[in-house]
From TrEMBL:
GO MF term set: DNA binding
Start and end residues of each NAC domain: 11-163
Swiss-Prot/TrEMBL keywords: DNA-binding, Nucleus, Transcription, Transcription regulation
A Pfam family recorded for this sequence: NAM
Region spans: Disordered: 167-221
Biased composition (Basic and acidic residues): 186-195
Protein name per Swiss-Prot or TrEMBL: NAC domain-containing protein
GO biological process: regulation of DNA-templated transcription
Superkingdom of origin organism: Eukaryota
Cross-referenced InterPro entries: NAC-dom, NAC_dom_sf
Length: 221
């Protein structure tokens, strides 16, 4: 979260909205599937609708939603039957880049102490060029969440984030114009997010986090 956004919410800089897998499924994806409002942890933070999220260069995607100074965001994406069938395949996006699919993660979560929901998280890395033979990973990752049982393949949540790992990786490649917003921190000074070997995304040391353990029925404890 940028300094400007944190101040507007009455929060100190460094606090980050980053729900875990179970929270994304139970508090955001399932309510959206049921046509119910999501439980937002605090005002001003939302998961944005953008059906082109998986086909847009991530720095352009964030800029389109006024998030050019951020390194991550969450999006609801509606998919077609064809898209759902190809969910675990590589997919091309504009700017001659490819989201390369990695090993998926499967999980279960219990809703309201009763119904058990099964879900899948597809992990993808953005490579410049076409497929695995391109110029290598850019440091951008995407997690796609879908409910698999009961099967609901036509709506997913995409979490797009820049990990910054790897030699000479930049948030925006040299052949693209960087997206820095006046009044926000310079790109080089913003906290990066990290991804472990299983594709799980973590925040850098010193950040605060908001998740289910901090909130009950949407109110801060």
């Amino acid at each position: 979260m940028s300094i400007k956004a944190a101040k507007s919410l009455g929060l100190p800089p460094g606090f980050t909205f980053r729900p875990d897998d179970t929270e994304l499924i139970s508090l955001y994806l399932l309510p959206k599937l049921h046509g119910e409002p999501s439980r937002l942890p605090f005002p001003g933070v939302a998961v944005v609708d953008d059906d082109a999220a998986a086909n847009t260069l991530p720095w352009n995607l964030l800029k389109r939603h006024g998030l050019a100074a951020d390194d991550e965001a969450y999006f609801f994406v509606h998919t077609t039957k064809k898209d759902a069938a190809a969910a675990r395949q590589d997919r091309y996006c504009d700017g001659d880049a490819t989201w390369v699919s990695q090993r998926p993660v499967y999980g279960r979560t219990c809703v309201d102490g009763e119904q058990e929901i099964e879900w899948r998280r597809n992990n993808l890395n953005l490579h410049k060029g076409r497929g695995k033979n391109g110029s290598g990973s850019t440091g951008w990752v995407m997690h796609e969440y879908t409910v698999t049982q009961p099967a609901c393949p036509f709506l997913k949540i995409c979490h797009v984030a820049f990990t910054g790992h790897g030699k000479d990786r930049k948030r925006v490649p040299d052949d693209e114009s960087d997206c820095q917003v006046a009044g926000d921190e310079p790109v080089a000074k913003r906290a990066r997010v990290e991804a472990d070997a299983n594709g799980n995304i973590h925040g850098s040391t010193g950040e605060g986090y908001y998740g289910m353990d901090q909130y009950d029925s949407g109110e801060k404890k």
